[in-house]
Amino acid sequence: MIMNSTNPPENVINCLQTILDATATGNYDLFLTVGDSNYRTDITKEIFDQVSSPLIPRMSEGYTTTYFGDLKQGETQTYLWKLSFADDGYEFIVRMGMIGDKVNLIWIT
């Protein structure tokens, strides 16, 4: 499959948006909806809260994502974005891995 480096497939964008919406609102149940069984097991509510808590106030003021591209890593297709905030402060890299149509990893660093 040849992917366009300008934008990932629509289902990938939808998964990322679900994750960001869940993070911005602290909604762990929504966060789990896009993941495979390992994702749902590995990312506990405590881990989710640790990551989302400091991001909620910044995301509520506004944020943007900039797509960097994707990498094939074994069975996982990994997608990379820059996460920027309206406050013009510290930015993050979002790394989301997918196998098929399910997210198997998400890192916001």
Automatic annotation (TrEMBL):
<protein>
    <submittedName>
        <fullName>Uncharacterized protein</fullName>
    </submittedName>
</protein>
<keyword id="KW-0614">Plasmid</keyword>
